[in-house]
Amino acid sequence: MKKKVLTTTIATGLMAAGVLTTQNPASAKADTVPTGDNATSTNEVATQESDAKTIAQDNVNTAQTNLDKSKADTQNASDSLQQAKVNETTAQKAVDEQTGKVSDAQNNVDKAQADVTTAQNGLTVAQENAKNATETNIQAAKDNVATQEQNVATAQDQAKQANDAVTEQTNKVADAQKAVNDAKAAMNPANVQATVDAANKAEAQVNQDKQNVATAQNNLENAKAADATRQTNIDNAQKAVNTAQANVDFSTKQAQEMKDQLNKYQGIKDAAQKEVDGLNDKLSNVNTITISDVEAYKKAFNDWYTGSKRGENWTEEDKDFLNDFMNLNTYKGNAADKNITVDINHLTADQIKELSLFSADLLNQVRNQLGLPKVIVTEGSLKLAKDVTDNYVSDNWDKFDHDVDGISRAAAENGLLSGGNFYEDAIFSSDFSEASTMDDLKSILYTGIVTMIGGSGDEMLHAAGLLGVDFGDDISTGKEQYFSAGTSMFPIKEDQMWITKMGHFFNVSKDYIRDSAKFSTTEVPGTSTEDLVTQLNTAKAKLASATDALNKAKDADTQAQQILAKNKVELTTAQDNLTKAQNVPVQTEIAQKALTDVQNKLAADTKINEDAQAKKEAALGDEAAKQKVLDQANANLATAQKALTDAQAKQKAAENNLSAEKAKLASLQQVSNEKTQDVKAAQVALDDAKNKLAALENAPLLVKAAEDKLAAAQKALDPVENVLVSEKAKLSALKQDLADAQADVTTAQKNYDEKLAI
What we know:
The chain has helices at residues 42-132, 136-140, 143-186, 192-284, 294-305, 316-328, 335-338, 349-370, 379-394, 404-413, 438-453, 461-467, 529-583, 588-620, 623-674, 676-698, 700-757; strands spanning 7-10, 341-342, 375-376, 424-431, 436-437, 481-492, 495-508. It has 758 residues and is mainly alpha-helical.
């Protein structure tokens, strides 16, 4: 059963950062063999042979040990090579996925730009159509056909008139024949009284007919006036219906566009909210270190260094404040990291990188609060961390102290000032378990920074090292440093049941670099708490912009729906008014028929009266007069017969003219048919212009909506362009990760080949 010992010890003293110490070289002892003139005795020979065998066996043992170590090194190199290849594959996948995201972001920018163009065009068209809409061009396409149709109608009317004239003249011939017959009858005395009575009756009927015609003519004028009023009402009602229908059609389209726009901005807002929530979740799990009173901390730091002896001016207030600082800042466990098991003595490059970025973020939080320059994780600092921790392991380190020799060797190998511990601060944490997770290591490093910054152990040397302050200087003189972190584990000889885990922090000042070719200052990219806060602020700004655009879209949608509802009510009212106007009965046709009937009767009765009066005159006249009437009747008959012949000739000419006009109409109709498609296209354009003109004249709010739509589209372009820039930056970072992973593969392959060769 594993138990943990709640003991944490801070390594302090002369091995803290900035203290230079030297060591004397280890002395070596050598065995000697006496020489002289006497011969070697048998016992001496036997002893020498025994020693030779022992030496040979030692050599065999040493060779076997070297062979076992070489095999282990080869296996470790193979494992590192495989892990590097896995890392390279993972990095390549991340680059591929991010490339897709960049492509999506570019598409979003292109679409947003297209929306801006569409909105601008929509506004321009809406304004221009109000000035350019007209029916003249469309009507002109129909004029020729309409004119010829009128010509045909006229020819048809003329043909009918000619036919009617023939019929009428035929009747006149018959009437003239009848007059001749009557004149002959009038010469018979027996018919005189009857003829006089018929004449008087016919005259009275004509007088009555004239009164009826006058009444009918008056009724016709009244009917025409009533029908004119009716038609005006119908025309006005139809125009109102057309306008209302156009407004409904246009506002329906506008309402749908506003609804589509609303859905679009709702999606943008939801995506922005999701991004903000995601960053808030990330920040809620971030470990932080907070100094509640910066001036109080600076005072405690400076008090420790003042005076003839360090710490003699440290007040109880200083100590209480630092104790509160350490108690208030505690590590947050990470569920995901607890599931990642690590070999603490053989951390991978990615694990060292993760721990270094984690520790650098914590340290920069403190430095930022104190107004000090930030630390930077570089490729060189990561390599130094690995080399030092590897030396701790290879040196079988088992002391609560710094492996100064191992630190110096690593410094020299990395082109840095060597000869002492100028770089490392360390924390030692003991427990029974050799098993470790990434969460365990982060907890150790977090605790190390808090306790060292908080002056644990009644000293501030570690705090000065981590904050980049030279011993004795005011805390405000901190400097930028290259930084990394690492861990290792070893037993303590005094009690073999104890297992000690060690957290290392490495600060490299620029002036400690002796060979820049061996120490890379290339910064290792990573996302810090400050980066997350910046991303959150950017995401919040995008969310605010999206929310504003959504609210405007909601307002535009509400306006469009209100306008549509209003236009629908107006259309219903206009349609009701049109129906009422159409339901008023037409009067002219009935009045015209009544007038025509009484006029025809007057004409017929007038003829009858004329005949009757002639018969009366003839009946009352002498024989000579009667003969004269008979002669006149015969003459009238001859005239009527001649008029009939002329009417028949006119009938033939009218029919010929009608045929010619119909042929011309057919020709013009053919030309009209050939232009039908052009006319239809013009009609579509006209209808659209009329609809938009009506909308602009009757609904100025829609012009405002179109302007708002353009402004919203232009505003929507900015966030998607920002997304594109962000995604490209992520892609650049991932490409750098891929390059690092590929370099690790190359290094691991070379190392494996060397180990395999050995």
